[in-house]
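Hi R.,

Here are the chain sequences for the assembly we discussed:
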Amino acid sequence: MSATKSATGIGAAVRRKEDFRFITGQGQYTDDVVRPGETRAAFVRSPHARAKIKSLDAAAAKKMPGVLAVLTGADLANDKIGNLICGWMIHSKDGTPMKMAPHPALASGNVNCVGDAVAVVIGETLAQARDAAEKVKVDYEVLPAVVDPAKAQAAGAPQIHADIANNTIYRWHLGDAKATAAAFAAAKHVTKLDIINNRLVPNAIEPRAALAEYDAGTDNLTLWNTSQNPHVARLVIAAFVGMAPEHKLRVIAPDVGGGFGSKIFIYPEEVVCLWASRKVRRPVKWTAERTESFLTDAHGRDHVTHAELALDANGKILALRAKTIANLGAYMSTFSSSVPTYLYGTLLSGQYDIPSIYCEVDAVYTNTAPVDAYRGAGRPEATFVVERLVEVASRQMGIDPAELRRRNFIKSFPHQTPVIMAYDAGDYHASLKKALEIADVKGFGKRKREAVRHGKLRGLGFSTYIEACGIAPSQAVGSLGAGVGLWESAEVRVNPTGSVEVLTGCHAHGQGHETTFAQLVSERLGIPFENVSIVHGDTDKVQFGMGTYGSRSGAVGMSAIVKALDKIEVKAKKVAAFMLEAAEGDIEFKDGKFTVAGTDKSAAWGDVALNAYIAHKFTGAELEPGLKETSFYDPTNFTFPAGCHICEVEVDIDTGKTEIVNWTAVDDFGTVINPMIVEGQVHGGIAQGIGQALLEGAVYDKAGQLVTGSMMDYTMPRAHDLPSFHVGLTETKSPSNPLGIKGCGEAGAIAAPAAVINAITDAIGTENLAMPATANAVWSALQGAKPRQAA
Amino acid sequence: MPAVSMTVNGKAVTGDVEARTLLVQFLRENLRLTGTHVGCDTSQCGACVVHVDGIAAKSCTLLALQCEGAKITTIEGLAEAGGPLHPMQEAFRENHGLQCGYCTPGMIMAALDIVRRRGNDLDEHTIREQLDGNICRCTGYHNIVKAIAAGAKAMAKGGTRQAAE
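And here is the predicted structure of the full complex:
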């Protein structure tokens, strides 16, 4: 391997190309884009969780200085703009389809959550638009709201949407109810838990934004949008919302400041900006204030679960069952239906060989913000259920938590779980073993005794998680109700001068694709890393792609690039064969050089690239000029990253405050392209998981007001809330894609909450603790509990 | 509309602003310096941190008019165009102290202020405590802490305890 290849190839901790513009303040985020004649949008939003709009008077607002238009839900309906949709069909146990309530981009009948938009003001300046928005008079008839998902289906609860009884979207299930019941009946030990997976606000630091521009000359619309998937946005807005034919809508997702899932979905604001720009014939820009983000970005999690684990006398797991109520909020967001079903129930086997599983999920409407995928999307919820059950079972049965896990780990692959997923490769013993060493679990007893002398309780918590990622094989998700396939596209363009552009349907909003994708191409083609550009985020440049989420860009996006590179190599060899006057089958390609086998006749990459475009050396009848290939890659399976996280905490007996004194993460991501970037993804995911466990929680009061509506009230993790992390890797390659990549983006968020809560409950000696485990919550739990004896 | 004059990144600038115009709006919209970002509306996130007369300040919580006559440094002012990067900027790249980049300008400007107040030999605990006013959602802070420690040390070598003027 040449020195160049190893420094910038697969496995190298290459410093990122994209950093230069970010560290010098030259990033181009959506709000940074300025179009000539740009106007600003300010939305008028419901202050009530549920109400009927009796009347709306925009007369005074329209007269305010700088106001071009005030547009309402009635105007939207008159212009026949279609509703937003959920694109994943889920059927109930009785076979009936999910109940999708209409979701217009501007409400005109009822409003169904605080923040629900009813009108928009388009002004010359933001200040003028906001001033006018305050003058729009809306007369509401306030209606009783449904806020608690556990009470949404109760008899007598207000019915939020017409024709949707009991506020129930679907009643879904997975697994074998009878076999599971039989296993529980025969079990020696049953562990039961009631779990709330607390509602979260994703809060990417860049607020959502949309800038729409209508070109009257061409009747074309352009949208700059903070999207993780511009082509999907384009398709939904064109085909479902009916804004414009797909070929007359361009969507550009420029630099995007974090997504974590919240920027996957198609929201009312971009729809309204597009529509408004065509009406006022000027570009329309909207950027969320943070309060708007809190109110209107899709929230995450929000499950109420009763879960049970059945074990035999030796701690061998016989069965698991869970009944969950999933709060989807006021309207079904774009992927919302899939998160508490096929991204949750299918992971309830965890890393364990569990013969029977049965899961029931009721999804309900409430008068709160829509809920959809947020980093981990269903898998943190599943992992929390499984890993809390296992840890609590180990305590109840007096079996060491690591040992109980070992007794139940899946040991041979492929392994078909009872919940659809077939795990193809893994070694859970290896990650557990390595984590135990790094975490110095042997020394924990001594540390615990020492801590007591200082008025602290130490606890240790495990989370041996698994996830299904590399979303996803199209046939599999299609059969489960997805409205789209989840393949990925790549176009590799070799330029005449030998540099390469890769146009990927993925999107980077922090993941470093401009670097990692270039590492792959540079190594494969034997060309300098600097000579490879990665292009993404513009539907005019890049063919259809599904975007980035679900830890898919490595496993699916890079696989598409590999397939395209395969085709490039085939064609380039043909060109080289003409140049070297040899048979195509005699051409070898290695380290950027084409050689006639067994001779010293060779052609360099650059010469072959140039010749492909000059085309003097071949007739064109047998071989077309040019060197550009496309691949649409459909994965054959999900990938299954897995690992072991161990959290060690110290709880202050007097205050209940938890300090995380050590965090160990050992993850198996298969092939790792850039270990520096992978570690960064793990750090960020763990931080979000710790945030969920210790600090965060979106709280609505009984009237449906979002009490935690700003960063003053919603506790975002700060640097002093978090430790440094000890991160290690084990590797079993994924057999389902050419590079063996499993993906890493969500792992930390999936593993962490269970590890934290397992650790704190170990420290304080009671399981009666909910997330977020704030100082107050832990202190209160301590008052009702006897601390566990030091080991 | 009142006029305001100040020096930004060494250049004298003036503009007409409303009384309620925030410094960050003046920088982003009047001066088209979009490196300074808005991430919240309660002065928590720190994406808007700039230096005002050599001291870190949240530009979302200052009115433009309050900065009449002040010397402002933004992220764009740390390095000459085409020139070498500031050691703190280099340290963020070298240590993977950023992912999406949105909090990064504010982080770097805040980091320089930590160095100004606490010196070049910063331990982990100090850095974490001092970053109370800067929120990152991507990195989990682990590499930001490493970057700031490394950047602070590198600034000592280069003889700069202060941010660039």
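Chain A touches chain B through 58 residues (CB under 8 Å). The mean pLDDT of chain A is 96.

Let me know if anything looks off.

Best,
T.
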